[in-house]
UniProtKB/TrEMBL annotation:
Homohexameric ring arranged as a trimer of dimers. One of its GO terms (molecular function) is tRNA binding. NCBIfam families: RNasePH. It catalyses: tRNA(n+1) + phosphate = tRNA(n) + a ribonucleoside 5'-diphosphate. Keywords: Nucleotidyltransferase, RNA-binding, rRNA processing, Transferase, tRNA processing, tRNA-binding. Belongs to the RNase PH family. It comes from Brevundimonas variabilis. This is Ribonuclease PH. CDD domains: RNase_PH_bact. Residues 10-140, 157-223 form the Exoribonuclease phosphorolytic domain. Phosphorolytic 3'-5' exoribonuclease that plays an important role in tRNA 3'-end maturation. Removes nucleotide residues following the 3'-CCA terminus of tRNAs; can also add nucleotides to the ends of RNA molecules by using nucleoside diphosphates as substrates, but this may not be physiologically important. Probably plays a role in initiation of 16S rRNA degradation (leading to ribosome degradation) during starvation. Phosphate binds at residues 86, 124-126.
Length: 243
């Protein structure tokens, strides 16, 4: 039995609450169990200098964790004067994941910045951020279409992410911190609604893992993302219905 008493294929309780920030074009408070991430989508009428004149937009992300998002207080990265390598790696992953499902030409010369702030961390913050970022971005595009700024929806597909791992020799879905810190192997899967793979991160932490174990992890991730896609669509539909 898992520490949370979940079955191997069971997600934590997931919520996707939209309209959290009244100022951002799109926002989502995503919860995977005790992990909570606030995502805002800001649309800027410009693009990075290296993209000017190309007739297309850009999607990027920033990721951060306030000092008491974890069990003990951490130092603010701003106070340290630089971002950690982990922060840079995660925000690049989020940006890549969202760009994989956006028609940048349909976006025009605009930039979408997805700010992902981890309010509380209990494992899977990057996967929660990606899943919530898609909701925030889709909500922002819906708002821009309603305002007549965009003629067509730039979104090509859904994208969601979930962690999996081998815990006590059993492949399991959606690791919380207790499982993640003790797993023999862990992985993060970023998948699209049409079934394509955006990214897979998989590591043997305490031992190598077999092909059969990897196949089981992939199957668990696929099933978990199918559930997340349904929740994402319901959240965005509710946001657009509210206007």
């Amino acid at each position: 039995m898992r520490p949370s008493e979940r079955t191997p294929e069971q997600l934590r309780a997931v919520t996707l609450e939209t309209g959290i920030n009244r100022y951002a074009e799109g926002s989502c408070l995503v919860s995977f169990g005790h992990t909570r991430v606030l995502v805002t989508a800001s649309v800027e009428e410009n693009v990075p200098g290296w993209m000017r004149g190309k007739g297309q937009g850009w999607v990027t992300a920033e990721y951060g964790m306030p000092p008491r998002a974890t069990h003990t207080r951490g130092r603010r990265e701003a106070a340290a004067g630089k971002q950690t390598g982990r922060t840079q790696e995660i925000q690049r992953l989020i940006g890549r994941s969202l760009r994989a499902v956006v028609d940048l030409k349909a976006l025009g010369e605009r930039q979408v910045v997805l700010d992902c702030d981890v309010i509380q961390a209990d494992g899977g913050t990057r996967t929660a951020a990606i899943t919530g970022a898609w909701v925030a971005m889709a909500s922002a595009f819906g708002y821009l279409r309603a305002e007549g700024v965009l003629k067509a929806d730039p979104i090509l597909d859904q994208v969601a992410a979930v962690s999996c791992g081998v815990f006590n020799d059993v492949p399991v879905l959606d690791l919380d911190y207790e499982e993640d810190s003790n797993a023999e192997a862990d992985s993060n899967f970023v998948l699209t609604g049409s079934g394509t793979i955006v990214e897979i991160q998989a590591t043997g932490e305490k031992r190598g893992f077999s092909r059969d174990e990897f196949d089981r992890l992939f199957a668990l991730a696929h099933g978990g993302c199918q559930d997340l896609f349904v929740m994402q669509k319901a959240a965005v539909d509710a946001a657009l219905a509210r206007g």
